[in-house]
Amino acid sequence: MEIYLVTGNMNKKEEFLKMMDEELNVEFVNINLEEIQAQDIVEINEHKVKTAYNILKKQDNNKNKKRYVITDDTGLFISKLNNFPGPYIKWMQKALGSKGIADVVSRLDDNTCHAICTYSVYDGKDVHSFKGITNGKIVEPRGNNKFGWDNIFQPESLSKTFGEMTFDEKQNLSPRFKAFVQLKEFLMNEHKKYNNEF
User: Fold this and answer.
1) Is 147 annotated as a binding residue?
2) How many Cα atoms occupy the beta-carbon half-sphere of 96 within 13 Å?
3) Which of 46, 57, 76, 185 is spaced 20 to 30 A from 117 at the CA atom?
4) Contacts (Cβ under 8 Å, ≥6 apart) of 110
5) Residue 82 in marked binding region
6) Cis before residue 85, ω within 30 degrees of 0?
7) Contact at 8 Å (CB) between 72 and 117?
8) Could you read off the pLDDT of 40-58 as tens digits, one per residue?
9) Residue 198's pLDDT is what?
10) Does the annotation list 175 as a binding residue?
11) Cα 175 to the center of its chain, rounded Å
12) Which residues bind Mg(2+)?
């Protein structure tokens, strides 16, 4: 059983390794994937994971081996902008930066939002998707910006942005971690089933 996480982002890789059980060996592959244009973050990610799986399968001589391919996607959904930018956050971030996004939201009478992260895993037959959601608000940039908009996202009922938190502080709150817990449970169960077959 081989597990591949598709990412070229070193921060995501580092975070994934901190969260993953050492019992599972994960290979990281960097594949440039086209994303479909859609508002549904799960739909986008499921399309992405199938594309990645097919690319990896074509590159491998052993077509019959059991492989699990994982992709992730994240969105920031701003209430007063009818949940825009959602899955298009990386493009908004690239165009405006964190400060620009915070400036746009500061002109609204409501700065609430929610962040969603999805992991999708595909084994060539079935796609399984896992979603984590964290409610919060957009604030002026504070802290580091290691992950896109961390320095402007302040979780509900807290006074720190993700950018001001340590890894441990952020972990239980982040939508990525919430989705990851579900993904890990699924992979551990698949790993047990796979080992019982041999």
Assistant:
1) yes
2) 18
3) 57
4) 79, 80
5) no
6) yes
7) yes
8) 999 999 999 999 999 999 8
9) 57
10) yes
11) 8
12) 35
Residue where the block lists tokens 């604030």: 139
Q: Which helix (H) or strand (E) holds 81?
A: none
DSSP codes, 31-43: --------S-HHH
Write the pLDDT tens digit of every residue in 95-146. 999 999 999 999 999 999 999 999 999 999 999 999 999 999 999 999 987 7
Is 11 labelled as part of a ligand binding site? Answer: yes
**Residue 189: both structure tokens together:** 């169960």
For the record, the structure tokens of 107 come out as: 């002109």
**Residue 126 marked in a binding site:** no
21 is in an annotated binding site: no
Dump pLDDT digits (tens) for 17-35: 888 867 788 999 999 888 8
Phi, then psi, of 144 in degrees rounded to 5? -85, 165
Long-range pairs, 192-198, Cβ under 8 A, ≥24: 194/1, 194/66
Please report the DSSP string for 9-52 in residue order. -HHHHHHHHHHS-TTS-EEEE---------S-HHHHHHHHHHHH
Handedness of CA 9, 15, 18, 19 (dihedral sign): negative
Residue 87 one-letter amino acid: P
